[in-house]
Write a structure and sequence with these properties.
With 320 residues, the protein is α+β, with helices and mostly antiparallel strands. The protein has helices spanning 5-18, 20-23, 47-57, 86-94, 116-119, 123-129, 150-160, 177-184, 187-197, 221-235, 247-255, 269-275, 311-318, and strands spanning 26-29, 35-38, 62-71, 74-83, 98-102, 107-112, 138-143, 167-172, 205-213, 237-242, 292-297, 303-307.
């Protein structure tokens, strides 16, 4: 059975539209018929909207719940994420792999979610997980400071090979409640992406869950980006159930997975980003990973743990 992440996510999108007042979001229709949920640009947003936006990013194939968790001597709001479709829901949907830019309108948005499975951005990732969606409707999450215009909708529709009227977009800035929640909600995705980058076939991951604190909202988008990344880097934890024939090799892969294995680790991400001249390409991509990871091999019954929660770094970035 081929599951359509866009069809699954559209059900959640429609629920957000139906309950927009309760979720404290706004619904906008573009001139060319696309539907946009403003979850933080001109709307306040809410915890519930953040949970639903995270589940939309997961292509409707995962669950997200905001809870309270303890980190050292402090309690912080955190998001718990789980999925029975790890490669498809995270790499095939949630991964932020579609940069959408309109220089004329001064628009920049990082696209994630099910629509990527139609546009195949990036193609290499979809080959690795052997997945492609064939839906006639697209659902995209845009991390952006402004709402997309008709021209941007056209770009998305063309990339997905669908009509503009079938484009559905949730938008939230990094410096918003929903923005902060959905970034921490990427904790499992970052773990799966990193472990696949260092050697594990993502198709061997059977089940995944994780938890990360939710960053305090900061009005400066660049500083907010630093804080939100640090929630996963300093205090995110991921557990994976995998099917592997080689525990020795698996143990070595797991050791390379946590954020602390990166040469860029040790400072608040904003400081690292600033020292790099605000150029992502000068930062080791290996930093984008959870603080700790536990991998259970269902074939042998052995478990492999690496990394640890860094309370001092978390407190420093959150200014506790």
């Amino acid at each position: 059975m081929v599951v359509s992440v866009n069809q699954q996510a559209k059900v959640l999108f429609d629920k957000m539209v139906e309950n927009y007042e309760l979720l404290q979001v706004k619904v906008v229709k573009t001139g060319n018929g696309a539907h946009i949920i403003d979850a933080g640009v001109n709307a306040e947003g809410s915890i519930a909207a953040g949970e639903m936006a995270t589940e939309i990013c997961l292509g409707g194939l995962g669950k997200a719940n905001v809870v309270t968790a303890q980190y050292g001597d402090v309690f912080l709001p955190s998001i718990m994420v789980s999925t029975n479709y790890p490669p498809i829901s995270t790499l095939g949907s949630q991964f932020a792999g579609w940069r959408i830019v309109d220089k004329k309108d001064k628009f920049f948005g990082m696209g994630s979610g099910p629509a990527r499975a139609l546009s195949l951005k990036p193609k290499k990732l979809y080959k690795e997980i052997d997945y492609e969606d064939k839906a006639d409707v697209a659902v995209l999450f845009l991390e952006a400071d402004k709402l997309p215009n008709d021209e941007i909708v056209e770009v998305i529709a063309e990339g997905c090979n669908i009509k503009t009227s079938q484009v559905n977009i949730v938008v939230a800035p990094t410096s918003s409640i929903v923005g902060s929640i959905q970034i921490s909600g990427r904790v499992v995705e970052t773990g799966i992406h990193k472990i696949s980058e260092v050697g594990l076939d993502p198709k061997k991951i059977i089940y995944a869950n994780g938890c990360a604190p939710i960053a305090p909202v900061h009005p400066d988008s660049t500083k907010a980006m630093g804080r939100t990344n640090d929630q996963i880097i300093a205090a995110g934890h991921v557990t994976l159930f995998v099917d592997s024939d080689n525990d020795e090799e698996l143990a070595e892969i797991v050791k390379k997975t946590p954020s602390s294995a990166s040469k860029s680790y040790g400072k608040p991400f904003y400081q690292t980003f600033k020292e790099a001249g605000f150029d992502f390409y000068k930062i080791d991509p290996g930093i984008f990973a959870p603080a700790s990871i536990l991998v259970n091999n269902i074939k042998t019954g052995k478990s492999h743990l690496a990394g640890k929660i860094d309370i001092p770094l978390l407190k420093k970035t959150n200014e506790i």
